[in-house]
Amino acid sequence: MAGAATNNGAGRGRPGYDLDSLLRTAVKVFHERGYDGTSMEDLAKRLGITKSAIYYHVSSKQELLRMSVDRALDALFAVLDEPESLEGPAIDRLHHVVRRSVEVLVDELPFVTLLLRVRGNSKVERQALARRREFDHLVGELVAEAERSGSLRLDLDPALTSRLLFGMVNSVIEWYRPRQGLTKEEIAGTVTTIAFEGLKRRE
């Protein structure tokens, strides 16, 4: 994740503008102006530093985009490697993955928002979309396993269920703002309650 690289970049360039600060500012400007509409000059002006100071951290605007979307993707894939995602009944593992994915979205909101808005217009974006599809596939397999175990309704298509689940998760980026007073635990709890009370097989 980009956070690991931040430590290596700490102290570079103008004080207060380490790699993490650079990425956060770049993502904010990408949201405001669009990635294609943002130049390195725009970023330099926003940061109050020279373009050469930015190039001390990264080689190009594309690298900024890659590091930003990878930060979101790495955090999501890390959820799949947590013990609660790997052990126990499939329905419990699925519940954990959905809940933790909401928490990742809240923690990394600008980066996940950027990820969800890429359209494949560049090599970096196409690679990000490929990783998103891989994540979706792994979640879909977990849904299918939960269905086979009898925890979910048998008339639901696993791939469609996965898309709908994460459609609800991803919709959080459209309305959530950190100053609204909701904690990530409250949001994650509400999403999982709505999703799984509707998915659990009724006797």
TrEMBL record:
Assigned keywords, A-Z: DNA-binding, Transcription, Transcription regulation
Positions of transmembrane segments: none
SUPFAM superfamilies: Homeodomain-like, Tetracyclin repressor-like, C-terminal domain
Pfam families: TetR_C_24, TetR_N
Gene Ontology molecular function: DNA-binding transcription factor activity; transcription cis-regulatory region binding
Residues annotated as domain HTH tetR-type: 16-76
Residue ranges of DNA binding: 39-58
Identification of the protein by name: Transcriptional regulator, TetR family
Organism this protein belongs to: Actinopolyspora xinjiangensis
